[in-house]
Input
Amino acid sequence: MQEHHHHQHDHGSLFEPAPGTSVSAPAAAVDKAKDPICGMLVDKSTPLRSERNGRTYYFCSTGCLHTFESPERELKSMKQRVTLAMSGVLALALLRAGAYVALATGASLLSWAPVSSLPWFTWGMWLFILVTPVQFIGGWGFYKGAWVALCTRSINMDFLIALGTSAAYGYSVIALFAPGLLPMQAGRHDVYFETSAVIIAFVLLGKYMEEIIKTKSSAAVRRLLDLRPALAHVVRDGREQDIAAEQVMAGEILVVRPGEKIPADGTVLEGASTVDESMLTGESMPSDKRVGDTLTGGTLNQAGVLKLQATRVGADTALAQIIKLVEEAQASTAKIQRIADRVTGYFVPSVVTVAVLALIGWTLAGNFSQGLMAFIAVLIISCPCALGVATPAALMVGVGKGADDGILIRGGEVLERAEQLTTVVFDKTGTITRGEPAVTDIVVLDGSDENTLLALAAGVESGSEHPLGRAIVMAARQRMLTLPAVSNINNSTGQGIQGMSDGRLVRLGNRRLFTAAKIPLAAADAKLAALEADGKTAMLVARDQTLLGLIAVADTLKPEVPEAIRALRARKIEVVLLTGDNHRTAQVIAAQAGIERVQAEVLPHEKADVIRHLQNERKVVAMVGDGVNDAPALATADIGIAIGSGSDVAKETGSIILIRNDVRDVVTSIRLSQATMRKIRQNLFWAFFYNVIGVPVAAFGLLNPMIAGAAMAMSSLSVIVNSSLLKQSKLQD
Output
């Protein structure tokens, strides 16, 4: 293992203390930074640092630095150790199977060899040869971690693993090569090499999975960085030239063409267009931009050419702030402290103390041999096989069951927090709504029929890339309508579209377009107001100067959402709707879903603040979202739940991923987390049950190491069987 796994981590907050609180930290604390890998506070004078995107990161060890700079290399190193350990265990299993087959057939395992002339080539020697590389190469990281734990006086799981496997391995080596040193008759087959190898292999596999999670977490920030455009068209000395986007300076004039990303935050000086801000805001509707409107770096210009003046560049842009929020939220979240680690902090010193006291006690009683036997037996019975399996076994079964139900649990920390969950916050667009507009209402005013009106509107919009236009065309196609030929199409940004059909001018748009054309709207006013009051976007349709009707488009609620909200409220969990949309639309959607508490018109960088505000109310909060703008909130929340169809960044930031894009799985994931946590606690009970019974018996000299090994195997078996019962848990109503 690398050094960064074994420090006594400091999980202090990265954020400033709340007003009115006092902090009695030393003055030197201001010169410290948090290691982004392990979370340990590091002096900024350390040479272990790395600069990325204008920000300096500080590290406590070369291991943390290497993991940050090259996570793939660290993952490859871990994979090699896991492969070595698992290969050793597989070889042991095959050897054991071969021995059983040989015994069953009455044959000697090495009948072909002159065994009498090879006194060292025994069953124990086979195990010694296979296990030694696993013990000292595969398990080297545990020894390093145990040493660091001793140096920092914080005994951890690494110390327990190193102690237990070393006791089993050391006893086995003595029994194999120098059995006379033992206070009992030990045959060379009475060894525990296999126990040591299996422990190391299983725990290494669990740590390898944790490394994969770390790599995924760092990838989330890299995806955010990828939203930044590489080039910018800047006007200098009256000429347009291409420069790297990070070289843009505040106040410079930039040109952005259709299909290009906006390189910096700024204000429109010339032109009009629609801008897709969904990668930042999560909202499916593009925004109309005209002179004087603000633009956000990283968003996509869709229609016209824009000339803007850069107002915020580099680390000051909205995208850079989102990246910073994600990094800080991830770094300030305490890493999972497994129950086994917490309990073994007391258990390991107690076991070592009991073993030493047993040795001293028997020695003072005049029986050193019995004391040595008791010492070894106590260490064997306390070997952490069941403790090492207790959490990973339940996690593997729980994660497997979740995958079958379309739920991925990314980190163990969500399990501990799920039981105390009091509040679930839902993003609107793409989470509880479909995330794309659809035609909801067609109102005919001229006496014709809906299909005629829809076909005429779809004909005008047939070549449009605007989401509202695509929704109308899609509705016409679903009805299998024949669209009329339309020519001379003219798009008026922010107003609508018009074109010629059969020699007559067809218009489709909002009030501004029709007011400019002096088309009377009195017949549509009441219906238009009603549709807009329902949070829908209503578009007027006219031929020449005659108003034909209205077509309403809206982002509609997913049909399964009300059921999910009812299930959460039945579990006494508060539900909150969080959106950047306007209050009117948010209230309409909330009413349809059955959500009472609404936070609307929340800017992307403010979503994490809303989560913190809820946490300050002593609530344990889960955030459910799908957009890049949800990433900071997902990372800040106690439990981040990402919708599978959402952006990659949101999925990688969330600790739970819903593959099926079904919000009912939010309830299922909570139940699964709670069920898995219960299994972990039960497993730990059974793991310690054998130790609580076995350690005193061993200390009094009533248990030899062989029986201790059998008891240890029994505890592991009970843990595995109990974990497998999780598959039978009912998670859905």
Notes: The radius of gyration is 33 Å. The CA atoms of residues 374 and 702 lie 8 Å apart. Confidence is low (pLDDT under 50) at residues 1-30, 108-118, 216-220, 328-338.
